[in-house]
Structures are given as structure tokens and as C-alpha cells.
Write a structure and sequence with these properties.
single chain, alpha/beta, OB fold (Dihydrolipoamide Acetyltransferase, E2P), Rossmann fold, 7-stranded mixed β-sheet, 7-stranded parallel β-sheet, 22 strands, globular, binds adenosine-5'-diphosphate, binds magnesium ion
Amino acid sequence: MGIHTFQDLLHCFPHRYIDRSTTFSIANLPQNNAEVQLIGRITDLQIIPQKRGKRLSVQVEDGSGTLELVWFRGYKWIMEGLRKNEPYVIFGRLNWFNGGVSIPHPELELLSQFEKGPKIALKPLYPSTEKLTTRGVSQRIMQKMMTELMKATQSGFTESLSLTIIEQWQLMPKKDALFQIHFPQSHNALSKAQFRLKFEELFYIQLQLLKKNLDRKQKIKGYRFSTVGDHFNQFYNEVLPFDLTDSQKKVLKEIRTDMGTGAQMNRLLQGDVGSGKTIVALMAILLALDNGYQGCIMAPTEILAQQHYQSIERLLKKMDIRLGLLTGSVKEKERKPLLEQLAQGELQILVGTHALLEDRVKFKNLGLVIIDEQHRFGVAQRAKLWKKNTLPPHVLVMTATPIPRTLAMSLYGDLDQSVIDELPPGRKPVKTVHRTDKNRLKVFQFIREEIAQGRQVYIVYPLIQESEKMDYKDLMDGYESIARDFPAPKYQISIVHGQMNAEDKAYEMQRFVEGKTQIMVATTVIEVGVNVPNASVMIIESAERFGLSQLHQLRGRVGRGNAQSYCILMSGPKRSEEATMRLQTMVDHNDGFKIAEVDLQLRGPGDLMGTQQSGLLQLKIADLSKDQQLLKTARAWAVKILKEDPLLQQPENAPIRKTYTALGAYKNIWNYIS
Ligand code: ADP
Ligand code: MG
């Protein structure tokens, strides 16, 4: 469980508490599978053979009735420790079955022992594993260890926050909080302890992230892009096909300022789907070029990299800029000259996938790195791009869809943040509906009407790793039935899926982009970034199997032109409650920031961002989906303190300095806070 030291053990906080102020009598047990505490004597013990294995069956009575306690594992060891006819405090979850009731794997403690133990109003439940339980490290043992630990340390913990913070927020002192979290004397004391420890956890994570940002600015020199030159100006005045939105201008200004300070830029750019992040990124690259540097864009998929490459190529057609594309499928024959040109600085902009990270890829002077759809890359990969130069390039990280504020503050808390919070003018919100198979004929009719008006249609099928084969079959069945209903030559259909090679994918994609096909049948490989403004209908098959951000991302493929666009979520009749919530959220909301918040509430922070980066999100006591306000407060205090006392030298901040100095990686923040 990651517990190596007493310190670790002390900070293994209960994940739940049970009110133990009530004792039930067997005659008046609740009629559901509740957790209960009762006091009773053992009248009989026996091992009973069953279909598979055996069970230990223990009869207890309390004067009002009798009840069976059962164990299916570890029973020999348990049986030896049990004494007949003595009163026990019994605790466990009821199991009602065929009118009878039992408690499987309860906890038992002799009443005489129980009365000697610490008086607590709430019983803590510690995180545990099956292995620990079968080896006898039960909740009771955990509690006993905590008791010993508290005795041994005499609650001699030093304060780790400053007096100002403690007074301002009326925080419980550290030593009391650590005691109450393990041995709550009352509900009130427990919630005060939780508040204090949550605050502390969030505060130190934020302090670390902010200080990392501050230190980086002071210590890591970056290229100073002081000029706005011909590339940028020509693009702005002659090429840019529209006016930038105010939000885009604001963000571009933030980026320009960053890149002019002489420190390395590390910025996160968030914006809803279709808010126009790409153009901002491109203009930032033009600034790099104007100052004599190269720029690169790294995208998570081959299709996306190609798409970026093509749209940038189109935009820069009239300008004298050399652009390259590097993905896994670029053949050695082309790759070699490409890499040479890159190293000599002849190539100014390189677009690509992970392939950019390879050691052979050497730039002459890489000045700016754009990482698109960052959450698919690990932090380590981000760092790898930095190391391509002596001075680290400026880094702009972009997210595909907005991520909730609390997660942005945690995952990207060390980055400066920019938000594009408006869509280009003239966009009509996509109309979203939820339909089932019953409506299929109508849906197809609707597709025909849209195509008759010159529009194009996406039909997307799920693709998840575990059942790739089944998904493939779904996709192919779907394709065939669509081909029947939309026969050639009147209708042309593209198909793109993960099992095709990159060339075929690009070919099919290209036919759709050029309007040669009206329908694109695809798996989620087209999820992000694809930009075909003439497409006006997005049909998502088995929509109940998609996550919210994926649905939103897919919906973002339409509504990119001026026509009214539609998103039709198809689902089977059977859905989980959560899936229904997701679909309803999509129908009700168009705003990606709002959808991200709902997603966080439904799934929790770890699942939301994928496993790669969840280390930062696995907090011991605070919960990023619930403690949003507290996180904002903690961050605000960290900002304030660093502003007033960046080196934490004021006597007042001595406890903070001491704790901060002891902090290592943010993953195990509690290892260092004592
Ligand atoms: P995303 O933020 O999802 O990456 P894109 O950068 O792909 O969005 O932009 C979506 C579409 O909006 C593109 O076709 C782009 O050319 C267009 N666009 C971007 N900015 C503007 C603007 N200020 N006015 C009009 N259209 C814009
Ligand atoms: Mg994009």
C-alpha cells in the first residue's frame, strides 16, 4: 500500500467512517444490507462443507435473537481465536438472503477489550486490500497500529502552516487534526480535522507547482523573441482569412509577452472545440520564425498531424516558408533528407507525431514547441522536446476539449494558463438529439435531405481496446447497411478505421475533405482535430459507450461552417444510469467547459484524465471533484504567500519553509509534511 515508514502509516487516512454510537439488537436489525454493530455471545462454531470449499459458521445470540456469522477464508486461524460464551462487539455488513440474515467476514472484538480501547464516536475504515485482510491485517489491526503510533509520538507533531493561515481559516492545529482524523471524538471534530488536512494537502501541491513556475522563470533562460517581423505581419495582413476573435487576440498577446521576457514560456492554452486554437498556435510559430528560430507542432495521431500539416500548408501557400511533416509512416528515403534539412535549419516548421521525439530528430534552433491535445502525452514526453536544445524552447500546450478548472490547476498548475472563451462569430450551436434504433429510418431520411443540400455526414462507431474485434464487426455491419441505403453512384462513402494503414486512411480522409464523398463512416480515429466545415451531421452510433469529452469532441467536428449542424446520438434501449446522464448532458449543453465539469462529477479526476497523469490527481484526502472551492482558496493563499515572500524567508513563514524544503516530488506530498 505504499506504507514504508511510520510517517506513511500516519498519513494513511481513513477513507470512510462508520457511526458506532448505535448498537443494534438482533431482533431489530435494519431490513437492508446495512453495516451494523451489535453485542452478542457465541453459542456454536462449526466448519460446514459446501459445494466449493468450506465455511466457518458461528452462531451468536444477544437475548433478542440469533444470527450467523460466516467466513469463507482464513477460518482456521479465526476459529482458534474465538471464545464461546463471552460477549463480543460484532461489526459488519448484513446479508439478507431467503428471509434469513448473516454477516460475512465480520470484525469481532471482545467487549472487555473494546471498552479498554480509545473512545471514538466514529469508527475509521482504512483503505485495504484483499491480501491484507486474508493475512490478518484487519481494520482492527490497523486501528491498533494507529493507537500505538499515537502513543509513541505523543502527538508531538509540529505545526506546518503559518499562524496567519491558521487564524484566518480557524484551522485545527496540526497535532489535533492528525489525532482526530484517526480517532474522531465527534462529527464536528472530524470535519474540522478533514478541512485542515485537505487544505494543507492542496496548499502544498499548489505551492510546489507555483514555485516551480516561479523558479523556472528565474532560473531557466529562454529565447527572447523581441521582434514582430515579416512572417507574422504578412500573415496577419494578407493571409489571415478572418478577423481574430477578441479572445484569440488576448491569448496571442499573452503568448507574445511570455516569449519576449527572456524566460522560457510554459503555457497551457485551453479553448472549446472549434474556438480556433490552431491559428493562434501558428501565429506564435510565425513569431519564432521572425526571430530566426524553428517551430514544431506535435499531435497525438497521424491523421491529426496530417490535417495540421495540410491546413498550415494551405494557409502559408503564398508565403516563403518551408514546412515539413514527420510521422511514423514517413519512409526512410524521405525521412533522411527531411532530417538533414531540419538540422541545417532549412526546414522552418515541422509538424508531426511522437516521431518528433526520436533522438535522430535534431533541430538547428528550435524556438517554440506546440503540443496539441496534450493529455495524450505524458509529462516525460513534454520534457523530451525541451532537451532538443541548449536553451529550452518555449512550450505551448493545447488541450482538445476544456478540462475542469480544478484539474487544470492541479495537472497544469505549474503552467501559465490562457483561455479562449468565445467561438468565432456566426457559429450556430449544434442541435443535439438522442435517438434509438426505432428512429433509424427517419434518421436516414434526414441524412438524405442534408446531402441533397450539399452537406456531408459523419457516422462514427466506437472503438475500444478490449473488444476491438467486435467493434470492427459493428463498424463493418454498419458500413454495409449504410452502403445499401445510400447506394453508389449517387452516394459516395469514405471509411476510416484503426486497422487501415496510414496511407489508406489519408486517402479516404482526403476524399471526404475534398467533398468527393458525402458520408464518412469511421471509428473514433477521426475524433480530434479533423476539420471539414461542410460537414453538418454527426451521427454517433452506440453513443452510450462513449465518454463525455469524446462525445463533445466528436460533436465538434460539425458546426464548423455557417450551416445549421446536427449531432444525433444513437443508442440501444438499455443503458446505465450514468450513460443516460451523459447523453442528456450532451443534449442540454453545448459549452465544453460545462460538459467538462459534469464529466468530473460523474467520473472523478483519475478516470477523467487517464492513468498516465493520475499520479498528480491521487490525493490522500482532498477530492478534486468535491473540494473545488477549497482548492481555489489554497491556490490563492499559495499565490499570496509567494508574492509577499518568494523565498519564504519571513519568520512568520518558517513552518511553511521547513515543510516546503522537505517536499520531494508532488506525488507523495504527505511523506514530507509532518
Ligand atoms: P480548435 O480550437 O478546436 O483546434 P480550430 O483551430 O481547428 O479549432 O478552428 C476551427 C475552425 O475555425 C477552423 O476552420 C478555423 O479556420 C476557424 N477559425 C478560427 N478562428 C476563427 C475566427 N476568428 N473567425 C472565423 N473562423 C475562425
Ligand atoms: Mg484543434
